[in-house]
Amino acid sequence: MIAKILEPKNLYRAYRKVVANKGASGVDGMKVDQLKPFMDKNRTAVITSILNRNYIPSAIKGVEIPKSNGKFRLLGVPTVVERWLQQAVSQQLATKFELTFEDNSFGFRPGKNIHQAIRQSQKFINDGYQDIVDIDLRNFFDEVAHYKILQLIYNKVKCPTTLWLIRKWLRAPIQINGKLQKRRKGMPQGSPLSPLLSNILLDQLDKELKKKGLNYVRYADDFSIYAKSKSEARKIGNAVFKFLKEKLDLPINLDKSGIRRPSNFELLGHGFVPTYKKGEKGKYQLIVTRSGWENLKRKLKAATKKTKPYSLEERLEKLRQVWMGWINNYRMASIYAKLKALDEWVRNRLRYCIWHDWKKSERKRKNLIRLGVNQDQAYAWSRTRMGGWAVAQSPILGTTITLSRLKRKGYKSMVDYYSEFRPQIQ
After folding, report:
1. 3-state secondary structure of 73
2. CB within 10 Å: which end of the chain, N or C, has fewer?
3. Quick one: which of 88, 84, 54, 7 has its CA closest to 161?
4. Tens digit of pLDDT for each residue in 11-38?
5. pTM for this structure?
């Protein structure tokens, strides 16, 4: 396999993937756009060092990413060169494993996505499987046993050099706050290889659940099993707990695991609530969890902070980047009404930014006149003692900095974008 990994065609495909994914620099500070010159100059030396097994991977850069609950998730950022080589390995390794993965595994696989996972979960629930075994793996990416992964790869890939290289990456130290720390288990979230390795390991769980004829959904390390009674769900939960502990050596977070009913079950940021349509008793529709809405509002608020020195066009572009990905993720849920209210709030935030950018009273007066306000009213509002947020919500800006004027500057509402998806979803 190492020969296929190091083929020029495979390495070039890996390079294009790394460049497309962009990403931050690792410990060496090399940026993505510096990878091509490095490859042109050092590719032969790198390949030779791998084949001779004296290649030494760089350390991983540890970056703490804030979570919605106030805690932090440790993300491991390999150097650009390591990402290139890991992507090359991942591409060839996937050819051995992808076709053997189970259909109900939806995470980080070609042709699979989060929406399929949510839809499958909703289908199980609406088919009457409403006692749900919800299991949370404790710090999955930090707890994976290296020997388990390597053994599973060895069963299909008998290439010693490939296994040696993967082991080198798994054991590479991580740099946190300038200090190197050894790693004897786990794999870094943020490397191109980690998603595939996690699927290789957890595919063992998929096969166990399939063998027992159980209904389940797995997206990376998020998985849930669907039963028709609480007693059946309890029996399944105990068996899965034992399998994870004894066969995969993975710990379970007991505080976050349990048996749920649809109304108190969450999956990948989605919740489930009963639908009250005629003839649909016992059916559930999708909603966005409270934390999902809070995350969106927090990011929108940051993009419309009046003290950030953006032009209106730059601010609108940053807003679009925030909400477009969010809506794409949650587009199957019932979000129209809340999005409409959030749109109005965002427009007032934009008016507040514009009012703040006008700064001086005389400039405010002249701009209000340009927008059609009579001179006396423009003078009075330009000297008002009201706070900027109150002015932004007042009729004076609502009737001058109108929706149509904002659209001419490039504004697009979240509701309009979401509405484009509705015919496809229905």
Report:
1. strand
2. C
3. 54
4. 999 999 999 999 889 999 999 999 999 9
5. 0.88
